[in-house]
Design brief:
Strand order of the largest sheet: 2-1-5
Number of domains: 1
Number of strands: 6
Number of helices: 5
Distance between the termini: 36 Å
Order of helices and strands: HEEHHEEHEHE
Keywords: Plasmid
Helix content: 40-55%
Strand content: 15-25%
Structural class: alpha+beta
Length: 149
């Protein structure tokens, strides 16, 4: 596994376990969601990184370029295959932004439960909109912020 992806996966797993230890519940469409599945590259990690990139782009902050591979075995339909940055030392910024976003916005101290089913569905739709290639690469940069709906 890519060491950067492995590090981001460990961050997501740690945040999820801390959240559950505080009594928080991870859900997917109302059913329990395992923290290890959430943090896996073929689980929810790609969707969490996508959501983080969308969030920080609203503040004019570049995030990372993320690539996905279509696979039926992935819980979202897409497996995260790479996370790349172009600025020296930017991987640390990405890791910190990811950790902070998960701890404060997704699994915050006042959040009793979080249902990630809608995120997974929106993520899958978003990736499908980019095409049906085997590998889909998306630059998450502030230069191309999302438009409000």
């Amino acid at each position: 596994m890519n060491t950067f992806i492995d590090g981001l996966s460990r961050i997501a797993r740690k945040v999820a376990h801390d959240y559950e230890a505080r009594g928080g519940k991870l859900l997917r469409d109302g059913d329990g969601l395992d923290a290890d599945e959430l943090a896996a590259p073929d689980g929810g990690l790609g969707a969490l990184l996508w959501m983080t990139g969308e969030f920080v782009s609203d503040f004019g902050v570049d995030f990372a370029t993320i690539s996905f591979e279509r696979t039926e075995r992935a819980s979202t339909g897409y497996r995260l295959v790479s996370v790349a940055t172009t600025k020296p030392g930017w991987s640390e910024v990405v890791a910190l932004a990811f950790s902070d976003f998960l701890r404060s916005e997704v699994m915050g101290p006042n959040v009793e439960s979080v249902d990630l089913g809608p995120l997974f569905e929106n993520f899958s739709e978003w990736v499908r909109e980019r095409g049906h290639e085997r590998v889909i690469t998306v630059a998450m940069a502030a230069a191309e912020p999302r438009q409000p709906e």
